[in-house]
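Q: What would this complex look like in 3D?
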Amino acid sequence: MSVLSVRSLSKTFGGVHAVNDVSFDIGKGEFLALIGPNGAGKSTTFNMINGQLTPDSGDILIGDKSIAGMAPRDIWRLGVGRTFQVAATFGSMTVVENVQMALISHARGILGLWRPAASLHRERALELLAQVGMADAADRPSRELAYGDVKRIELAIALANDPQLLLMDEPTAGMAPRERNDLIKLVKALVVERGISVLFTEHSMDVVFSYADRIIVLARGRLIADGNAAAIRDNAKVREVYFGTGKTFQETAS
Amino acid sequence: MTLNALLFQALNGLSTASGLFFIAAGLSLIFGVTRIVNIAHGSLYMLGTYIAYSLATKIGGAFGFWGGIVLTALIVGVIGALIEIVLLRRIYRAPELFQLLATFALVLVINDATLWLWGPEDLLGPRAPGLAGAVEIFGRRLPSYDLFLIFIAPAVLIVLHFALAKTRFGRLMRAATQDREMVGALGVNQAVLFTSVFALGALLAGLGGALQVAREPANLATDLVAIGDAFVVVVVGGMGSITGAYLAAIIIAEVKALCIAIGVVNLGFVTVNFSKFTLVAEFIVMAIVLIARPYGLLGKPQGVVRSVAEPEAPIRPATPMLKVLGAVVLVLLLALPLLAQTSPYVLVLATDVLIAVIFATSLHFIMGPGGMHSFGHAAYFGLGAYGAALLVKLAGFPMLAALFTAPLVALLGALLFGWFAVRLSGVYLAMLTLAFAQIVWALVFQWEGFTGGSNGVIGVWPAAPFNKSWAYFLLALAFTVIAILVLRRFLFAPFGYAMRAGRDSPLRAEAIGIDVKRIHWLGFAIAGCVCGIAGGLFAFAKGSISPEAISVSRSIDGLVMVLLGGIQTLVGPIVGASVYAVLQDTVMRQTEYWRALLGVIILVLVLAFPQGIAGALSALSRKLGRKPGGAA
Amino acid sequence: MNDAMLSVAGLQAWYGAAQILHDVSFNVGRGEVVALMGRNGAGKTTTMKALMGLVSRRGALRFNGADIAGLRPFEIARLGLGFTPEDRRIFSELTVLENLDIGRQPPRQFADGAAAPVWTPERLFALFPNLGEMPNRPGGRMSGGEQQMLTVARTLMGNPLLVLLDEPSEGVAPLIVEQMANTIIELKKEGLSILLSEQNIHFARLVSDRVYVLEKGEIHWQGTMAELAGNLEVQRAYLTV
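A: Here is my prediction, written as structure tokens for the whole assembly.
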């Protein structure tokens, strides 16, 4: 059974079909890339799945539960973690506190007024930080971290509620090639280990071709291709609207 | 009430709208480009009326009047340019709230300068030469000058609209509204642009004020009244929209006119005097508009303003040194009744300081960790104070029972107002909270039968054994210490962290299951409740409570205290409140022009310590603690 | 180098209290395309902002014969140094034509008196046909790729002698990246100098003459593009996988 099913999803902004009748599924443990030109509807699709936008029509299912129009925080409670295109952490907190917040929330302890938050779930938070290689930075203010490290913290936060699905909006945006590779390798290892499914958008074709199990392509709001790396690479339509000649990215043989 | 009377009042409303429009348009333009909410804009408007009065009476005749109005607008424009060059230019990089503080200081300075130059009497200018008569409309006589005002506002609106849409200056202004740094990097001299925008905004305010000279007397209270009205108009119309400002000015003026036209109505079981609602009417309009359209009628969501403030450091439990320091201060305070036996005034002042500390600490709770910049914290102070006073007077509560119930009254108010307020953010939240505070103020002012109206409630003295000033001081100290420690505890608990999470990154907070609005709403309620303690203590400390004590200026005092102390530190509000309360008391006893002196002091502090006193101290200690050149 | 359009020596720069650039020296010749490469956080963007006077900086900075070390951003822009930021910073409320108008400056000359290319909206629409199709569209309603073109076009309206292009390939589709590469080659033909900040070596290779590799606020390697392309060691250390 699919972890996530998107059924005939549509969204219109001021008469323009941003997303037009899009359907796809993600199986358990699948690493699915969503690519397409700027303005193709990737972000809109993404934001409908994570709850920031309500679809005009169509449905989104987590397992067999419809989440269309649900608030992001309720979707999270169903086991959907996410990372942002511009990494978002709580700048006024330390690294470990950032992860603790997610754990406290997961345990429904947010309204606690008495016990100091810094003492709650610290062990578990440190474990998660160790898994993303950031244990050493646990007590540093998160605003002081380099960008690549902030992305790792986000990953630890996203893993805090044992998600079954991870939504990653351009996970490697703003990173150098080597950092990109390290981060995606890390994500891949963690999700394989835990059997998490991942839906991610990405502009770095190196990353997409090297790591995605399957690729779906959006253009002008419609799904124009769905297949593995080889099939997508050879798809004439995708070449025309998205890849161009391909000389600005590396053609990695897979 | 006849239809004619209604239509006549509607015309009256239109002419009032023109004054509102001029000041609001200037405020909006300045905010758009410089991102400064110029609280002194009402002062520029007031100066307009005074200067036009002097020119009209000194020069006299048609030239003195009409030429005087034009000249006044230019003079006020130049004053605006000078303010921008001398003061604001230095603080564009300071946090937004510091800029508010600076412009508020200008309000104080300009008010006293006006008092010094023109004296305390109201000054009514001459009738407009050529338009001194009246025309008969709807069976009544409407002054020709009012008719003129009805037409001049749309005329100016059209000119402004054209200038913004079609000229390069207008394009530059709109571009700078979004990203002034980029405009500079494209070769545009921002300093000149900012100065001219500020001068233009000031010119409009001066023109609006000058045009009032034949209609209303120049009056020293105009500045805060006008800025309050202008805030409402700008927020209802939408920040940055000139057309929205005009629309909002008309709606508000018309609603007020309608209230007057309806007058006293007998609804069968109760008689309502609608003309008394004029004070509240505009704020109710604003509350309704903001709830339906959070960015005003024609406003757009504010883009991400490039933040220049330094991000906040993680909060840490008190260091041993701070704990020792706190204990020493507490011991000194406990010993104060002994030390101050010879001068009882010290205890009265010290009690005032404690009340200010509770007030500022509760405000900081939502402003700092919550990121909600309330401009109307006086509302909860007022609810606490009136709650306590009325419980004693009308319900016969004993003092302590009243002191413990007062915060609950404030809590109810904060729950109600906060529910609306947390739906907004930034400037809009600030303005809505201000509106709610004005509603509370107008209610106590106008509900004479219950609250005593402008006289307030008197004879609210503490019961024995707290009728001695030392005993009451110790009682206040107990409340203060408990309030501070409890709020602090909350901040270190998950709730306080969740509040900061919602402030730091609402998207991320929602994405880990935090209901940000709900958390901020509860935070708002807690702050209001604690603030009610300060109100209750205040009523018994003074033996009375009047509308004056809960006016806009108390809300502003709170902001000044929090900012003075430094918004990013937890001890900041305590330091800020203490310094400000003592300063205010000292300065008030030195000179008749204490407002100006206070204003100058605030300006100096703002220019010298852009991070607040406590912020500056901790920066200093960090600097001293760090090895030279030791950048990590 | 005598004919350097831009020469930078011992540049240091700070964000607040944090020093980002420690000692950066390089130059860009007339008509040359130079790439500043390095990983995220190496200091590429800061170098560009420091040149424009947008962050606090120290060092010897000369542009087209003038000392720009003490000048403010608008004064530097008026000497013909154009800046296209990484995050594009399009004025979203303004239309394409209005955005272009904000960048407009009078024609200018090189230090030797030769006239610099003069740009008009018509010429720019020929260079970026997409923009020509939407002259009255507000910037906020354009796609990322279109905004990327507009930010370059807006800078060209200032008739610059040298353009600082900060990561033009970041976050846009491969097809747009290709168009950006063609644009840079086009601008070079016009006689403009370009300082490019880039992480994508495939892209940089298509357009650049020389390369400086930045790491932790210092230059760690310099040479021609051809040399870098052949030097896998440097690529591995500072750039690629």
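A: To summarize the key features: DSSP finds nine helices and ten strands in chain A. The CA atoms of residues 41 and 126 of chain A lie 37 Å apart.
Q: Very helpful, thank you.
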